[in-house]
């Protein structure tokens, strides 16, 4: 297994204007997701201290954690996909020639692209329904369409990153066939 601690080691960095814009968008969303996680850690600490020291936890802290984590996780997905850092099981595919490996990778990224588009579509419909019907969270009455609407661009960027990977692996499979 080949693992790297850096997601931007340069070997798989997108090139060209479109690739750099895609990387910039994915990195920006990942940074926003990281900021959300830092805020959630502070919220959790404040609630814990309030509960233990003053017997007064923050009202709705679990609701905020659930909503924030959903948005943060969605924000990390495009960067993970762009650099191909998903968990992969390669027990059987390592024996395939390079062209076969690239074709399988292109197919896997195509499936990710289709899943991201399907999720973006369905999430946007759910956000619209929540907006129309005024659905809110139980304790804090946060309109549920807001976090759903924040997830949709993350899923669309995930689809773009997947499309980038499909193209990259397709081109690599063609180059391997020509070699």
Would you kindly provide a written description of the structure presented here, covering whatever features stand out?
It is built from four helices and no strands. The protein is mainly alpha-helical. It has one domain. α1 packs antiparallel against α2, α2 runs parallel beside α4 and α3 runs antiparallel to α4. The longest helix is centred in the first third of the chain and has 39 residues. It is elongated, with a radius of gyration of 20 Å. The N terminus is likely disordered.
Topology summary:
Blueprint (H helix, E strand, L loop, with lengths): L15 H39 L6 H22 L15 H36 L11 H34 L1
Helix pairs in contact: 1-2, 1-4, 2-4, 3-4
Give me a quick take on this structure.
Helices cover 73% and strands 0% of the residues.
Strand percentage? under 5%
Q: What number is the mean pLDDT?
A: 91
Uncertain runs:
3-10
Helix-strand makeup class = mainly alpha
The SSE order reads: HHHH
Radius of gyration: 20 Å
Helical fraction: over 70%
Query: How many strands, which pairing sense, and closed or not: the largest β-sheet?
Result: none
Number of strands: 0
| Morphology | elongated
- How far is it from the N-terminal to the C-terminal residue, by CA? 26 Å
Domain count, please report it.
Answer: 1
What is the number of helices? Answer: 4
Give descriptors for this structure.
single chain, 179 residues, 4 helices, 0% strand, mainly alpha, elongated
């Amino acid at each position: 297994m080949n693992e790297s601690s850096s997601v931007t080691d340069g070997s798989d960095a997108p090139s060209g204007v479109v690739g750099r814009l895609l990387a910039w968008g994915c990195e920006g969303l990942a940074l926003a997701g990281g900021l959300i996680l830092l805020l959630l850690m502070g919220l959790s600490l404040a609630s814990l201290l309030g509960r233990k020291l003053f017997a007064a936890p923050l009202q709705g802290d679990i609701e905020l954690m659930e909503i924030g984590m959903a948005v943060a996780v969605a924000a990390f997905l495009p960067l993970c996909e762009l650099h191909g850092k998903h968990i992969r099981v390669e027990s059987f595919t390592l024996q395939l020639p390079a062209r076969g490996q690239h074709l399988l990778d292109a197919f896997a990224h195509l499936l990710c692209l289709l899943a991201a588009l399907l999720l973006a579509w369905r999430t946007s419909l759910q956000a619209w329904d929540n907006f129309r019907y005024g659905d809110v969270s139980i304790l804090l009455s946060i309109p549920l369409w807001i976090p759903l609407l924040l997830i949709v661009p993350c899923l669309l960027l995930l689809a773009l990153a997947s499309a980038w990977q499909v193209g990259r692996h397709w081109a690599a499979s063609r180059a391997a066939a020509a070699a």
